């Protein structure tokens, strides 16, 4: 019942800015929810060690939390005196944005400029770190700091490519030609999953082929209304439907889950999948054949974003220590550790990455990120949109709906949601 | 989980051994099939608990493990700090089971035998606590617990589940005691027994088997609870087994073999508890029958 003892202390989240708050604190409570063997888990363990060396008088209480627990209860937890001083939290309007609007997170703007985090992170990475008064990302104060990034790419099975005489495509036409080759030999070229996020992300990648940054700003940051019946979204849906018709995507994948898509690729049954860098570490440890990745051919914009954020709850009693810790995680040593363990660091020097596959992953990410090419995810704009997209693209995969009908079905919830947010 | 096992108990005794015939075999076959069907998920879990992640991804969930892989079990035990979670779960489920049975008995004694005015409404109100989805209770409970300084303590969860479980217990026991033989009560009253003595000496011995069943149910139900412990217990030192199990499920990735290993470890205590109490349970029933 040690917890009872601390409940007596009341939280005093004084937001007086400056770096002095809680500098004399003797303990730092730190939470994250990455696996111990994951890239972030390994790198952050090292960051904790460095922090302890540099702050010998501070006890660090680290706890690994369940993703679901933080997802469901972050608001309740950090609104109490039991919360951590620094924690990992999901980026986005519905999560970090919401808590920042409720005043539960500490404004990190001063620290970001003072410690140079604003220089280390590219503009599209900063989008998810900053939130306005309504909790909408993209502008306003800094409320979080991302350590790693993620993006959607193509994973391919080199052995299957060689066996069927297919070379790595560099344009969308070459990709289509490659898939025709597979179909002609009776192989379904592209694995996807209609019951979860992969189908929506594939559609978004296709739409982004015809999109520019202003589309992303309109769709994700509500700068202007989005016409679902015009390109790029129209092109995305129609091309998706065409790919289904031509057999690039199996009709059975309408009911498949992301895990099914991943395990089918690991088992060497699918030549290609279009999915995110979060698979990379697992593929690296579990796949026995020769595989590699390439950026979605022809796209300058790609689905992707910063990873989750370090946030400092307003009730933190050791804010100054929390800033120090975040700063350590941004150092080259920690960033290189993320990269060397199969993660995508936000500020790493690719020459410090030893494994060629890891280096390629990071170079590709840097290429996308430095060209301002991270376009976020299709389900981000409005709450509950994930399920709308899943239902829509299941209809396209099993061909029960036309692209037109699907665009109609996903346009209305989007418009309603945006109106709701703007009223907010 | 063990709740789903209980129907197998009575079902096994169901075939009448004095009637030898085809029906007997048909029933036996049906029961065997049902039992096997119930065991399939457990078999799959067992199979995958001892499989390496690579093996699982390559060969799927139904293949025979290519090696006897125990790292999943070890990882889960160490990462989740399993002994602590086990103690928390046992403490919470055990306390709730005992307290809720005591509270149910006292409530039901007043309602079923004491014949309180408006008892139907009171029982109805109790049932409401059980019927409300927990999601709607969570925020008020969080708020009260925080105000009372009980947020993030096991005591908060014990109090909450004692109330929720005893609501069902009160409903059930009140109906049972409503049909309690008047003769016994009158005889006790003639012998000069007060209300307390009647409860402990006359009523309790007669409902002991029912109480034992409630005890087992309360323990297992509380053991498997997820949402309220997830919300109330935020420190790793206070968490229960199901919450620890959830920590294996990531944002976009899952580790199926470790999850299976974790589920296996988490299930064992509940099964052991059920098996132990299954024996006292049948003893309780026999004692009742002799009276």
Describe the protein:
- The complex is a heterodimer of chains A (424) and B (291).
- Chain A folds into 2 domains: 23-148 and 307-348, D-Maltodextrin-Binding Protein, domain 2; 150-304 and 378-423, D-Maltodextrin-Binding Protein, domain 2 (3-Layer(aba) Sandwich).
- With 424 residues, chain A is of the alpha/beta class.
- In chain A, strands 2-1-3-12-6 form a 5-stranded mixed β-sheet.
- In chain A, helix 10 (197-208) packs across helix 18 (385-397) and helix 18 (385-397) runs antiparallel to helix 19 (403-423).
- Chain A is 46% helix and 11% strand.
- Chain B is mostly helical and 291 residues long.
- Chain B has 2 domains: 2-13 and 20-73, no CATH class; 82-247, MetI-like fold (Orthogonal Bundle), CATH 1.10.3720.10.
- Chain B is 77% helix and 0% strand.
- Chain B has 14 helices and no strands.
- In chain B, helix 6 (82-113) packs antiparallel against helix 11 and helix 7 crosses helix 9 (154-178).
- Chain B is globular.
- Classes of the chains: A alpha/beta (424), B mainly alpha (291).
- At the A-B interface, helix 1, helix 3, helix 13 and helix 14 of A face helix 4, helix 8 and helix 13 of B.
């Amino acid at each position: 019942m040690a917890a009872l003892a601390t409940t007596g202390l009341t939280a005093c989240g004084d937001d007086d800015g400056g770096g002095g708050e809680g500098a004399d604190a003797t303990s730092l409570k730190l939470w994250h929810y990455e696996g111990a063997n994951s890239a972030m888990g390994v790198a952050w363990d090292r960051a904790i060690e460095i922090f302890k060396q540099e702050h010998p008088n501070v006890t660090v209480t680290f706890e690994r939390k369940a993703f679901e627990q933080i997802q469901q209860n972050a608001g309740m937890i950090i609104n109490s005196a039991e919360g951590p001083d620094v924690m990992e939290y999901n980026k986005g309007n519905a999560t970090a944005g919401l808590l920042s609007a409720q005043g539960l997170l500490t404004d990190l703007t001063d620290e970001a400029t003072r410690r140079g985090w604003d220089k280390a992170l590219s503009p599209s990475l900063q989008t998810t770190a900053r939130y306005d008064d309504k909790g909408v990302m993209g502008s306003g104060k800094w409320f979080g700091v991302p350590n790693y990034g993620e993006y959607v790419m193509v994973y391919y099975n080199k052995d299957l490519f060689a066996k069927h005489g297919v070379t790595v495509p560099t344009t969308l036409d070459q990709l289509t030609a490659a898939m025709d080759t597979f179909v002609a030999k009776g192989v379904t070229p592209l694995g996807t999953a209609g019951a979860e996020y992969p189908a929506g992300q594939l559609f978004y990648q296709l739409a982004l082929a015809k999109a520019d940054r202003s589309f992303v700003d309109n769709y994700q940051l509500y700068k202007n209304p989005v016409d679902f019946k015009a390109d790029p979204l129209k092109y995305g849906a129609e091309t998706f439907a065409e790919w289904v018709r031509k057999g690039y995507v199996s009709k059975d994948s309408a009911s498949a889950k992301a895990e099914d898509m991943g395990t089918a690729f690991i088992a060497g049954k699918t030549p290609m999948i279009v999915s995110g860098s979060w698979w990379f570490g697992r593929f690296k440890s579990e796949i026995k054949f020769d595989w590699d990745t390439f950026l979605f051919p022809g796209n300058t914009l790609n689905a992707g974003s910063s990873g989750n954020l370090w946030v400092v709850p307003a009730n933190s009693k050791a804010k100054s220590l929390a800033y120090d810790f975040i700063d350590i995680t941004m150092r080259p040593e920690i960033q290189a550790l993320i990269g060397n363990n199969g993660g995508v660091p936000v500020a790493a020097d690719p020459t410090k990455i030893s494994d060629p596959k890891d280096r390629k992953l990071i170079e590709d990410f840097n290429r996308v990120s430095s060209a301002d090419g991270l376009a976020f995810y299709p389900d981000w704009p409005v709450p509950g949109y994930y399920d709308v997209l899943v239902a829509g693209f299941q209809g396209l995969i099993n061909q029960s709906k036309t692209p037109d009908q699907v665009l109609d079905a996903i346009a209305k919830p989007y418009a309603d949601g945006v109106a709701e947010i703007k009223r907010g | 989980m063990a709740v789903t096992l209980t129907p197998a108990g009575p079902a096994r005794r169901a075939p009448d051994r004095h009637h030898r015939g085809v029906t007997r075999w048909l029933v036996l076959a049906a029961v065997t099939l049902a039992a096997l069907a119930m065991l399939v998920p457990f078999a799959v879990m067992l199979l995958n608990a001892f499989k390496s992640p690579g093996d699982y991804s390559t060969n799927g969930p139904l293949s025979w493990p290519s090696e006897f892989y125990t790292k999943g079990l070890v990882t889960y035990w160490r990462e989740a700090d399993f002994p602590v979670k086990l103690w928390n779960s046992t403490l919470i489920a055990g306390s709730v089971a005992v307290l809720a049975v005591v509270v149910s008995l006292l409530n039901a004694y007043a309602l079923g035998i004491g014949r309180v005015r408006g008892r139907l409404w009171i029982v109805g109100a109790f049932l409401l606590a059980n019927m409300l989805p927990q999601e709607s209770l969570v925020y008020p409970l969080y708020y009260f617990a925080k105000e009372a300084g009980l947020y993030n303590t096991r005591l908060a969860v014990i109090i909450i589940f004692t109330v929720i479980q005893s609501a069902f217990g009160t409903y059930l026991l009140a109906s049972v005691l409503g049909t309690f033989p008047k003769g016994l009560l009158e005889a006790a009253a003639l012998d000069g027994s007060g209300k307390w003595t009647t409860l402990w000496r006359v009523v309790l011995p007669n409902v002991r088997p029912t109480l034992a069943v409630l005890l087992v149910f309360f323990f297992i139900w509380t053991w498997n609870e997820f949402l309220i412990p997830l919300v109330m217990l935020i420190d790793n030192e206070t968490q229960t087994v199901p919450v620890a199990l959830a920590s294996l499920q990531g944002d976009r990735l899952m580790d199926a073999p470790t999850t299976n290993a974790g589920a296996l470890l988490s299930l064992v205590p509940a099964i052991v508890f059920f098996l132990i109490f299954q024996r006292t349970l049948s003893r309780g029933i026999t004692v009742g029958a002799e009276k």
